[in-house]
Amino acid sequence: MKIEINHLNMIYPGGKQALKDISFTLQSPNLIGLLGPNGAGKSTLMQLLVAALKPTSGSILLNGTPLTQCETQLKSSLGYLPQNFGLYQELTIQQFLDYMAALKNIPNSKQAIQKALESTNLQALNRTRIRTLSGGQKQRVGIAQALLGDPSFLIFDEPTVGLDPEERLNFRNLFSSIAKEKERLVLLSTHIIEDIHSVSSQLIVIHEGEICFLGTAFELISQTASDTLEDAYLKLIHHPNAKN
Fold first, then answer.
1. In whole angstroms, what is the distance from residue 202 CA to residue 195 CA?
2. CB distance 21 to 210 below 8 Å
3. What is the pLDDT of residue 241?
4. DSSP string, 1-14
5. Judging by beta carbons within 10 Å of its beta carbon (0-12, 13-18, 19+), is residue 79 exposed, middle or buried?
6. Which of 30, 44, 184, 213 could hold 205 in an S-S bridge, CB 3.0 to 4.6 Å?
7. What is the arithmetic mean of pLDDT over 169-193?
8. 154/143 Cα distance (integer angstroms)
9. In sequence order, which residues have a C-beta less than 8 Å from that of residue 186 and are 6 or more positions away?
């Protein structure tokens, strides 16, 4: 899968410009880390990539075809976990995943659901009502629905929030294996620098609606003369020209 973003601009009705002339290419297999402070434009970018928003100007191409012409194709190959994902609290995990599989028209849904439950270690809780789950368990349900049907393009917005360190490590490894072994395209947005550094092969940093870095974590550390990725990131967002 190849996604090309060309001179993308997004201005909301109130006049706020969330993205300013953004251009880059995403291609599988790859795990791309997306970093940026609150309000930088990350969530806007992800909503544009899943066709939940339409850009003010610019284009997004999916395998060479404008996204406006292939939204159905995109959604059939997409797994998406937004930051504020809504769960049906009175359903059990199994019922919720059944519902999501039906929405996605996933063939062999029983097998797909079992696989998602196993990947997120939720098999023992599958008949538990969502309202009784902990915050971390609910986050795992959100990840499970994104994994349904083995999508070729996955977008995760803060997927490890609320998870304990062991769970975070397990999911970092899962996302990495999906990208490498299944040759998928994974976009991972998070404020947890460790999650990005350990698994991403490419890094995008957005600040004030603009891309201020595109490359590897090693390149950012080197270009900012830093000891760690966290130090490099902080230098970059406080001094966006630090890489030049």
1. 13
2. yes
3. 56
4. -EEEEEEEEEE-TT
5. buried
6. 213
7. 90
8. 10
9. 30, 31, 32, 154, 155, 156, 175, 178, 179
